[in-house]
Amino acid sequence: MPTIQEVAKKAGVSVATVSRVLNDNGPVSSNTRKKVQGVIDELNYQPNLLGRNLRRSETRMILVLLQNISNPFYSKIVKGMEDTAHENGYNVLICNTNTDIDLESIYLDFLKNKLVDGVIFTCTAMVTEEFNKLAKYYPVVLCNEYNKDIKAPIVTIDNEIAGYEATSHLIKLGHKKIGMISVNNVGSSYDRMKGYMRAIEEAGLEVNEDYIVYHTFSYKGGMRGIKQLFELDEPPTAVFCISDLIAVGAIKELKSKGLRVPNDVAIVGFDNNSIAPMYDPSITTIAQPRYDIGKKTMEIMLQRIKGNENNNHIVKLEHDLIIRESTLPSVD
Amino acid sequence: MPTIQEVAKKAGVSVATVSRVLNDNGPVSSNTRKKVQGVIDELNYQPNLLGRNLRRSETRMILVLLQNISNPFYSKIVKGMEDTAHENGYNVLICNTNTDIDLESIYLDFLKNKLVDGVIFTCTAMVTEEFNKLAKYYPVVLCNEYNKDIKAPIVTIDNEIAGYEATSHLIKLGHKKIGMISVNNVGSSYDRMKGYMRAIEEAGLEVNEDYIVYHTFSYKGGMRGIKQLFELDEPPTAVFCISDLIAVGAIKELKSKGLRVPNDVAIVGFDNNSIAPMYDPSITTIAQPRYDIGKKTMEIMLQRIKGNENNNHIVKLEHDLIIRESTLPSVD
DNA sequence: CTGTTAGCGCGTTCAC
DNA sequence: GTGAACGCGCTAACAG
């Protein structure tokens, strides 16, 4: 791999001139430009980005922290981020944190140590206080997850309204005993639950605490949730699940109990994951504008890097209720 | 963010000494070490990795190229890679290529321009010739995908035997008309098909070319595959699908035709994706040792970086046939 | 045990 | 329009 020095020597010019040709800034006569470009092509020269980045003290790289790439929910979000980044001459790197605080802090060192220009969190194991300190000094944006004490730009949907709409849909179908399978300690879930409660109260029904159960964000969480709900004397006739993955576990468990979805129990999921339309029955769910969430998040990040973005700032994008087989009783 | 200079000045020593404390190499008296460490902690100093990497001309970063993070198949593979990398003081970056040749070449510039020490491909849009040239000069390893002309280390399973076993399983269950939904131009699919054919021939049956259809690596591909197979006068009674996602599409389409799986048509998938046990019916499939594939791939990469690894070298790991509901007729 | 110095590869002022 | 020289922040070779 040749260096800029060798190009310069071979072209019979100084490194400064090569640099000018490379970056197309500063004046170069068309003759020498042609000559230099010729050598660049001939040697197949590519500038060493380590040197360039050190000199410019920017990398034009944005790191996206994912709990785990296996969650297909994030693929379109990342696509939105990537497209926006590329349009602006930035690149996106993805790292798995596996909810491991040590791993997370290694990746944050990339930010502190100038290997990337900014970090987008889709989750974090850090305590809020520490997170806020980080956000104070470095470009950091939160995507889709949050809690109310966080001081950093946040892009999300209005989870309270989404929870309200999901529950209202079940109420309109005539359900009066509506369960909810949620997870603990997540800001978005908390808001969805508040929407769930508001819908029930506004419909003149009563919130039954036993109907709200907390499990993990997974297929198994859904199975356990149903098990718990169906140990009650009066099990619900409809269940709002905090994610499609939970909904899938719930449906699978109901089927194994010999119950039919939606005829015996209606199920609503959340996220409109790729499984939702594929499952049998296909799953009624809340679709988040994932691409736009990613796009908006990256836009804010790039603004933040430029310095024209304050740090306390929440953007809520529109969601959609998508009605599918899991809540619409067939005629049989 | 302080520099090493400022730390040195504040501690009253030279930058060399700070560097020695930082990297814990070279002799430093315990007194000055303590003093320097004190200043480092006080200033919360972290070394600028751009400077360090430029100096060392290594980054201890490995780039993993994924077609798309949405494919959950790769999550465990990546986990295997990450664990192995971390054990050796390396970090893993993930990038989506979206099968976009231009994007891919941008990421390859990271390699050529010293931003990462090696690249692992799980897919590539490059032509083989160009790929081989790249592999000749830079540390490159191929994971799970290949064609026979490629000259780079490859880690995979024995797809021919896997295809053979999947098909033999169906034959043992009494099926004689066995279809296959495959995809074009992928080395692994080609080998699976060869195994499929060998199983059929060894059982004394005849390969029917109409039973092999080619579609995309997706849910929709599975639906279209079934549609095509069931336009035949004598549709198959069992179908071997090249991936679980295709199998899911196939099952969904069969159900919408009023056919039962497995009682009317048996289905085998491939990969043991997370959907496979969750789907209804759960899907018989070939499980690849994903974690070990990732681990082995990274081990070879690290050897390759050290220079003790030749470039023409294929590792095949063990797979497993997992039998589930989609091939086992229930008694009804 | 410690400091001085050179240079990794590049971009950029400032002369000319 | 072009080149010489400096420095981004760090590590390593050498001298003391």
Automatic annotation (TrEMBL), chains A, B:
CDD domains: HTH_LacI, PBP1_LacI-like. Gene3D superfamilies: 3.40.50.2300, lambda repressor-like DNA-binding domains. InterPro entries: HTH_LacI, Lambda_DNA-bd_dom_sf, Peripla_BP/Lac1_sug-bd_dom, Peripla_BP_I. GO terms for molecular function: DNA-binding transcription factor activity; transcription cis-regulatory region binding. This is LacI family DNA-binding transcriptional regulator. It comes from Vallitalea guaymasensis. Residues 2-56 form the HTH lacI-type domain. Pfam families: LacI (PF00356), Peripla_BP_1 (PF00532). Keywords: DNA-binding, Transcription, Transcription regulation.
